[in-house]
Amino acid sequence: METLIVHPKNKEQLMALKAFVKALKIDFTTEKSPYNPEFVAKIKRGEAQIKAGKGVKIAIEDLWK
């Protein structure tokens, strides 16, 4: 069999998925992220800013000045 990894975007989706899986009598496990959600949100915002060209590049040589 295959294993599916699902990433619901909000609590409503999570609850709907759990109800669906339970209705089909499918065994499942849940894991909580070991990371603080605020920290994860900051990292994602930073990645989005870099993709949007808002990052600052620093040359390696400039790190020792």
Automatic annotation (TrEMBL):
It comes from the Bacteria. Pfam families: DUF2683. This is Uncharacterized protein.
